[in-house]
Amino acid sequence: MTAPKLAPRLRATLRATLRATLSACGLVAACATTNCHAGIVANGENWLSRTGSHLQKVYDQGQTEIFLTGYTWHDPHTYTAAKLAVLNSHAWGLGAARRLVDADGSDEMVYAMMFSDSHRNAEPVVGYAKQWIWRPDGGPFSLGAGYTAGFTSRADILNNIPFPIALPLFSLGIGPVRLYGTYLPRVTSKLNNGNVAFFFASVPFG
């Protein structure tokens, strides 16, 4: 089966987003000439084109994997006992990815998943991940560290309007199976927010 071509649609969406962002941030007004505006847009569009092509390559050449989500840890020093009592730690859900391993053994993937968030609402995530992999002694065990970036939406944040995320990503591999973990830091001094770890696993499919 031929994988659907994502790049043209993605480029068009990102190009429109870039133009809107330039205007919203006042960067267009900061340019004294039309050439300045055109140069910013052209450079941005070139970057978006390269990014879209690379994501398409990962999707086309990658191996299909299935995500199984299952656990969210909330720091007991950040949340009150009353809050912890109502938060959901069982982040059950499913997802799928296309994972591409390079010549050095490191990997990239594009993915989508949906799971039960801390308030038992469905949370979708679509994104890209890059990890550098170490294999001690060349055995079946491996360690990974890198990052993920993408978009999510939550009922308790912006009323389910999608927003971008960028988070660290770590993994432990045993043969073809990998256990992933990411961390959402605390961003304010208020109690009951942040300092959350999220865990999921991946297994090859097909």
Would you give an account of this structure?
With 206 residues, the protein is an alpha+beta fold. The chain folds into 2 domains: 7-60; 64-204, Porin. Helix content is 27%, strand content 41%. The chain has 4 helices and 8 strands; from the N terminus they run αααβαβββββββ. Strands 1-2-3-4-5-6-7-8 form an 8-stranded antiparallel beta barrel. Strand 3 (107-116) and strand 4 (122-134) form a beta hairpin. Helix 1 runs antiparallel to helix 3. Mean pLDDT is 85; it is low at 24-29.
Short summary:
This protein is of the alpha+beta class. It is built from four helices and eight strands; from the N terminus they run αααβαβββββββ.
Keywords:
8-stranded antiparallel barrel, single chain, Porin, 2 domains, 8 strands, 27% helix, globular, 206 residues, alpha+beta
What composes the largest sheet? 8 strands, antiparallel, barrel
CATH architecture of the largest domain: Beta Barrel
Separation of the first and last Cα atoms: 12 Å
Instruction: Report the β-strand fraction as a percent range.
Output: 35-45%
What is the string of helix and strand elements?
Answer: HHHEHEEEEEEE
